[in-house]
Specification:
Layout (H helix, E strand, L loop, with lengths): L8 E5 L2 H7 L6 E8 L6 H12 L8 E3 L6 E4 L5 H4 E3 L4 H8 L11 E10 L2 E10 L5 H11 L19 H12 L14 E9 L1 H7 L11 H17 L12 E8 L13 E8 L6 H12 L2 H19 L4 H8 L10 E8 L5 E2 L2 E9 L7 E9 L2 E10 L3 H20 L5
Parallel strand pairs: 5-6, 9-11, 11-14
Antiparallel strand pairs: 1-4, 2-7, 2-13, 3-4, 6-7, 8-15, 9-10, 12-13, 14-15
Length: 422
Amino acid sequence: MGKSTLLKIPRTRLSYADEMLLVNGCPGVIGLAAVFSGEPPALDRVRARVAERWSGLERMHQVLDRPAGGARWTVPGPFDPSAHVAVTRAGLDELWATSVDGPLPGGLPPWRLYVVPGAAYGGDFALALVAQHTLLDGRSLATLMRALVDEPAAARAAARPAPFRPGLRAAGRELRTMTAVGQSVPLRPPGEARASVAVRELAAETVRSARRQPADGRGATLNELLVAAVAGALRARYGPVRDWRARDEPVYTAVPCDLRTRTNTTELGNTVTVVRVPLPVDVDGPVARLRACQAALATVPDRAAVHAGVLFPAAEAVRRTGPWVTRLLTGRGRHTCFAATATTALKWPGAADTFDGRRLVRTVGLPPLQRPGTASFALAQVGDAYTLTVVAHLRPDDAGRLADAVVTEFGTWARTTAPSVL
């Protein structure tokens, strides 16, 4: 089995986004599985494909070095596919459940690719990539998995509107929004928090019908539907926010925003920011909640531009004065009231990809486990296959209950738009 011949390079400093993820106090493992039909490929074949497609990617060779002077990325040598690619006896559900609650062991670049035999979610086997979020973001996982298919399509950046040029006033508004106090999901007693993971399939017709909401509007994006469904799921599971505690603060969700442009579409690492969006948990009715989420999410692109154009460059400059700056900047984000949930919608471009002739039928995400009192939601799409993954750090099995509640919200929208039968 060939190894890459990448030469050693000097240590490189962590980016601001890397460091925020490193010190947030969470396990920080994320994942993406591609489910295929057909017999699982031989392990040597998968290792050979990984060596061929990934060995030239510097990020896949990096190891976190944490000397007293601060963390750095270093490349001690080429990665060994035999150490990183393995067959797991566990099914995909079990692999996700055992991966989410602890960091990957040190000494090697913090990623692993598993061949997962056994039928699951409409397929016969899966290739499952897990990694420390410090090393790779969700877009990076998708880029890597797409690179493994038989004929990877050329990467294309999504069309974007004209760039917003933020000023100091916009930056001030965003800073106030970023630091506003929010609500945590109620935990009674707080010590009972447990990690749980749940995966649910959504029927394609249900999602298509839901996307026609609101009936008198432009329709809804997958991301808008997910955020609105999470608001409804929290209300169904825990009741209106006014009953959680005697405070008026809203519940926020963290919406990841990819900052890549047409010039760095396939860049690996953490080229992402997070924008806080209030969840309309106290708004009555699924359609009304969806309208509220559409209004809130419409502001996200301009707010993300503030992060990229003003806040990130300022933070990068200021934190060079010492590690205490990083601790100060991350203090707010460590509290569960900063974002009670995180919501991510992932779409695989195209639907006819194969691995050694085996057809791709579905993708299944693994969002990160956050601090107690939070839940993360990822909705993945390949063609007409929609898959929801919920990772909760709440009461035991709350992931399953929240996942079912999200599916119920989609069903309610679909029934609302379905034509009547006389």
